[in-house]
Amino acid sequence: MKGYSKKYLPLLLGLACALGVLLGAALDFSNYTSSSLLSTNKKKEKLARLIDYIEYEYVDEVNMDSIVDVTVNGILTDLDPHSVYIPQAEYANLSESMKGDFVGIGVSFYNVNDTIAVIQTLEGGPSEKVGIQGGDRILYANGQPLFNKQISNDSITEHLKGEENTKVVLKIYRKGVPELLEFNVNRGKVPLKSVDAAYMLTDELGYIKINRFAESTYKEFREKLILLKKQGAKQIALDLRDNPGGYLAEATQIVDEFLDDNKLILLTKNKKGAIEKTFSTKDGIFEKGELYVLINENSASASEIVAGALQDNDKGTIVGRRSYGKGLVQREMALGDGSAVRLTIARYYTPTGRSIQKPYDHGNEEYFKDYLNRYKNGELVNADNISVDDSLKYTTPGGRTVYGGGGIIPDIFVPKDTNFEKESLNLMLRMGYMDRFIFETLENNRSYYNSLSFEDFRNTAIVDESILQQFREFTRRENFQIKVSQYKPVLKRYLKATMAQQLFGSNAFEQIVNEEDPMIEKVIELSKEK
Question: Nearest CA to 135 among 429, 437, 447?
């Protein structure tokens, strides 16, 4: 549900534990001598004593929560770019986003003119089941008015969320219906989909897009893979573009569906030199089919595990641009007060033994500038500009040359359109900037749009010149100036995709937005050569 709070509220409780974990790394005290434990305790005592001095003796009042926040973040920043502190207030939302579901009524909404307007019900959620629709206005929840007042999204969420299997009575205004509608909604688990789309690109080529690797990702993926096979898919395009990663186990299970029995998927190595290896099993359901994996500069971590494992096992073709380059493994560790740290505990290596972690020895600021550096050196538009280190050259069993040292280099390169206007349009699309405009457009004639099937919608030139003009006026009101004359067809497609999202869901969105996508077109071309 939109509108979750992401404000930080760090707490002092559990600091001693945090410092012990971070500085002592004493995750298993049985491995340490009494003298090493004493040394570690002295370090903890030193920092704890400093905090006490500041709290009780410093001349001015200070926010101790902020002191702790700065201390913990400062420690982690000096370790590596991916060891991070998760404050208590943020932890619940982050955990929820990776669980694969949350408890609520299952709507996304806007606060329009001090009224809660439903954008769409979430597929499989309680609101969809009782018949709530996009465009409905939620006026009351259990008799509590939710309109004509200054009410934050967080407060709205508190009224609509609750314990599983509890009821909330909603009174709703629906345009064209004279009386308020009443719905008894039984709060329940609402799926947070990590598989955005699964459909057939051609008669034999299926397409699956994964946006992150959450707890439910493998289950979602397998269901979609089985469905596509039933529809005739003999080839699969697995889209991992802009996928930042997530749970390692979900990634390895997905790889397992494509590999023969007992193939090495990855290995991890910690600071003590302990190596853990993960192998495929005999249960894969797409071991014989042709595979294409789509990656770009924002495909990271678990996405790179998938691409690297398949590439090193000579399974399929990697298409796109060099991936992000994150080869560090984090473990989430609770700090006792509802906050946590994600601490790097190992490095992972692809089956050929290569590390794909890009360097971070010049500090975090330089590390996170990597995209800008790739842009400046021309790597995003020309594969010849990708810098490789011959000392990190590896060879797969099938004789393919691959490189370590920073990301997965694709087998087939597809350049990025770096035109500023095109980039701005894509940013507007992916960041949801077009959503409110499309919501207003649908509101003007919702009965017509709701009457369309997806096939009718897809085959209709739904975004005409008048809608484009309205969008230009909308961007001017929002102080977002952009010239789109040469990219008018792209803008029309993006607006239509956004409309498809609100009317039909993410699967429809991806089908529209992928039309004329250069990377998709390249995969279709390659598939026809097989």
Answer: 447
What is d(CA 345, CA 27) in angstroms, rounded to the nearest whole number?
Answer: 10
pLDDT in tens, 239-270: 999 999 999 999 999 999 999 999 999 999 99
Residue (of 192, 198, 199, 196) closest to 242 by Cα position: 196
**Predicted local distance difference test score (pLDDT) of residue 110:** 85
Q: How far apart are CA 103 and CA 189, in angstroms?
A: 4
Q: Are 95 and 84 in contact (CB under 8 A)?
A: no
Q: List, for the chain, all residue ranges whose pLDDT scores fall below the cut of 70.
A: 1-40, 149-155
Structure tokens given for 124: 């499989």
Q: What pLDDT, on a 0 to 100 scale, did the predictor assign at position 51?
A: 83
Which among 429, 414, 248 has a CA at the least distance from the CA of 347?
A: 248
For 69, the 3-state DSSP assignment is helix
Task: Return d(Cα 84, Cα 106) in angstroms, integer.
Answer: 30
CATH of 101-191, one of 2.30.42.10, 1.20.120.1200, 3.40.50.720, 1.10.260.40: 2.30.42.10
What span, in angstroms and rounded, lies between the C-alpha atoms of 130 and 185?
A: 7
What's residue 150's pLDDT? Answer: 62
